[in-house]
Write the structure tokens for this entry.
Amino acid sequence: MIFFLLALCVGFTSPGSGRKISISGTGQGTTYHIDYFALDSTVTKSDIDSLIHLIDQSLSLYMPGSLVNQFNEAHRGIRIDEHMRAVVSRAIEVFRITNGQFDITIYPITEAWGFAAKKPTSLPTARQLRKLTKCVGSNYISVRGDSLLKSKACVKLDPNGIAQGYTVDLIADLLEVNGILNYIVELGGELRVKGRKLPGDEPITIGLETPGESEWELTTTNQSLVLDSGAITTSGSYRKYIEARGKKKSHLLNPHTGRPVMNELISVSVVAHNAITADAYDNALMVMGLEKAISFVESHPEISARFVYRRNDGSIADTMTSGFKKFIRKKL
């Protein structure tokens, strides 16, 4: 989910450590691109595709029989694997930290607005949304041993706000287990990087983008992000939407009201030590709105963020937290 488009001019290595190897493909309804530097192809496209398929068997809403679909159809709960446990546990943690601004149980609302596999014939009414929001709340789910339980049968999970970040982390872990310490992993615009680029043993740089004359059009900036270890993800109202009564409505939904997020924020990009953390928080910050989001990030030093927003006069601007500024480099 991204105003960060990639500057994948990545040649990673330390002296004498090999050549750049690139892997590209599709997965989780999007594309991925991986660059790493090694003496040979110790990690292959087949390895990446197998890993993504394994994660999808657990977390994909579009794969029949996946664990998340089994849970959504269950009345009490199911046994889960390590992937679902990791994602749900982290989601519950972020739910608590953000006072419910990020909520993995938002699927009933996601489905009602048409952002799921099953498309409704009409948009939800206020009465329907009031009913559906009673099924939303991560306080209704709990991980107990190898089981995930729910206290209401109508509770359903939507892991899409966190699953891609988790997948990026697992791909990075796969590379590191195979001794690869210089890489960039990108899936659906979510990134995790480590190491340096060649020539000249230079740091990895990622180009920044921002809306142009409208929030739906992108243009480049004269800034780039310099990151030698960590992750960056972006959530934006421009990325997916529906048109209703001549207006675009974002796929980003407020779990408390059941309605599309309607505030001044256009996008939030988060830097964190791993992608699952950044991916969860970028959604929560979009729901908070600019002032509350900045205050939240400044009080949580494990993350930093950049915000693109709409001023009161309709013009578009951006700002960033103090931690994010440390990663910025201006182009000459």
